[in-house]
Amino acid sequence: MIDPLKGAGGRATRGLDVRPETAAVLRGHVEQAERNDRPAAESLAALREDGFFALIGPGRGAGARAETIARSLVGVGRFCPSTAWVAGTCAVSKNLVVANFPERAVLEVLADPDVLGCGSGVPAGRGEREPDGVRLRGRWPNVSGCEDAAWAVLALMLDGAFSLAVVPVSDLAVERTWSMAGMRATGSHTLVAEDVLVPADRVTSAGGFAVADRLLYAMTVLGPVVGAARGALDAIEAMFASDRVPFMSSYSRMGESPGARLWLAEAAHLVDRAEDTMLTVAAAVDAGDVADGPRMLMRAADSARDCRAAVERMLDLHGASGFATTNVLQRFWRDVSVGSRHPQVNPYLAAEGLGAALAPV
Fold this sequence. Notes:
It is built from 11 helices and 7 strands. By secondary structure, it is of the alpha+beta class. Helix 9 (293-318) runs antiparallel to helix 10 (328-339). This is Acyl-CoA dehydrogenase. Keywords: Oxidoreductase.
């Protein structure tokens, strides 16, 4: 069995760099992506060329670890959080394939290491065994990147047990149900299977998700969110470097205001802390040090909340004009607000889990 986080080789933990050319493509197609509720084809092509879809699996990119994945997604999220989110979903789907299916099936499904995958861990389908395989029926909502992915890993119930199936997206219908204020361009629509026959070797029973897997998946959520917070901070720092002045004040520029400098310092500190917390959790996953899972899940939730708090500080600095639809700050704010509320970083459930660990009934 291939280790999804080790593979056959290895990448440096610093993550993949976003080349200036790729950053320009991402930045230049953000508005188009939001209008279409899916990543721009040009952005996906740039990430594919740079290896961002090959972070997990055999071939190029095998060996990427949780810290590498998190850093890579921060880099992309700084320019287009939604496209980074789709890359993170791809990493999760490939992890599910590599961790749960026989090596022969893995090598077949991931023959192209740069192929885009998607999926859902919600058992929203049911399977029935037939002589030639498993007949699959179901509806899986919120499948990020499904319109552009080649295949999907879908959770289902088979013989009363939680199972996973790998299905070509071409065998499924896509219902365009995604209509959200933030992470709009993730294309997280609904996949529908109506009497789809899946070969037996593409369906497998699976246990519950281990703590290490849950933490890895939290990194694929946090990476784009932290990246979005960094992108917002870039916009605020550019504002401070401009000739903009605090309205209704006697200051000649933003940096003259002690209060503005304090708010800037707090925002930058919160973003730094969010990223440091995320990378600390990722490093523990890479080291196999996940015995204290409840505390680590709590830290992941804290990272997400720090991103939200940081962007709120930045909007205070910018004022109401930061919410203009032409302002990049409001887009980062929406993406952070939605992405940081994903179930993988749910703060009250994380607190509930930690409380149960500290004081078991």
